[in-house]
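Archive entry. Fields below.
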Amino acid sequence: MRAATPTKAPAKPKATSPAAKPFLPVIENEAATGRIVLVCEHASKQIPARWGDLGLSADQREAHIAWDPGALAVSRGLAQRLDAVLIHAPVSRLVYDCNRAPDMMGAMPARSEVHDIPGNAAIATAERLARTEAVYLPWATGLHGLIAKRIALGLNPVIVTIHSFTPVYHGKQRRVEFGVIHDADPHLSVAILNAAHKLTRLHAELNAPYSAADDVTHTLRVQATPYGLPNAMLEIRNDLIATPEAAAAMADQLAAVLNMGLVEIQRQAKAS
Amino acid sequence: MRAATPTKAPAKPKATSPAAKPFLPVIENEAATGRIVLVCEHASKQIPARWGDLGLSADQREAHIAWDPGALAVSRGLAQRLDAVLIHAPVSRLVYDCNRAPDMMGAMPARSEVHDIPGNAAIATAERLARTEAVYLPWATGLHGLIAKRIALGLNPVIVTIHSFTPVYHGKQRRVEFGVIHDADPHLSVAILNAAHKLTRLHAELNAPYSAADDVTHTLRVQATPYGLPNAMLEIRNDLIATPEAAAAMADQLAAVLNMGLVEIQRQAKAS
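PREDICTED_STRUCTURE:
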């Protein structure tokens, strides 16, 4: 299961918690009527002033540990091509990783790949609460509201999260170019993978470069699975989407892939 | 799985939705440091003025179809005895049942037991959205925030929802007095049931008078399961808690039962 955070004496909750300025998620294309809701948790490398530079160099603050380079550009390209709404987080995952629960090590990581994060080395309970309130809660509330309203409207939402990964991790080259990761329900992910094999020459794999067992499917688990919504997490190797042109070309390919995957699960639903 | 709502043409979402006055959940005993978070979705029979009387008689608006009589009194008794925080919904489940997703029939039921609900007979999509925004979203957001903050604080929350049920349903007498219902993870429910058998003379059963298969565990499914939190739904036959004295006596019994159940799952967690 999830890695537990180091044991700390629990703090007494206050009846009214200190009001940290909340960082609201950004919603684009909200009037879209397509079924797909695009979610980009790691869109931003922005570290708000109150957290300084977290003790990191400028290079580190640009690197994949701070965000998913290219993921927002692909997400925007997909939103346009699929008549899909898009929601993305405005703060670096080094402050709070919106794809992690507040008690997961990775929510405010002290280390990411080969980098120590000095500003996260010893986070006091009050600071853990403050980041949860400032970043995670507005994010989760915004995403939940977006989804619940579309359920109420009869738009039958399908949740697709968009991520990118580094081609070299802990010194090892990754061969996979496009990963499709599922949580409890694999059917959309399998349909997307099959479509990728049919329509593209991408080296595509299921549950790669990691899987739900690595606790990377928090968003799907909280926001899609309990409502019975089809869902999938897409991972694109970031060297393939390093320029606006490359991201647009990838969006062209993946829009066709997602459309084919969606048609397939709609066919399955009708047949059952 | 869940009963689907009748098919309706999906409505176009607006970029800014009409601001319906939100009905915020009530949180009591927020400074409590006990692990248990008490949740009472059906605490209130209140129908706000904008929904009139939903076409129901005064008797119907007092009946179990509108709320869970006695559940709030028992919840408050438990909150006091267990040093537990309590959250309850301020609006009748006939307007919106906070233990149901927006696309479930039961969220805004057109019929409950033997009663037609005229005000819910033909709910337009815009009205379905308005009720979701006015009642369900503030409820879900408030409960999620309460839980996430306690996770961040290291308080290891355990979610227990408190319900009551009618002794006679569709003309049949129910023999069960105390039901413990689980969602995906049964371990807290089983520990509570065993404690009830040891400590009380209540006729107690697992997954009675209904179970997760009847789609009654929405709150647990959305708010507890995705975070890996131990959880259970308690159902008390409402003729046993019809007076303040009876509710207090039940709270005495169930506080001991919940404490024993909690000790048991903590023992199991240590042993594993």
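CURATOR_NOTE: Chain B is about 35% helix and 15% strand.
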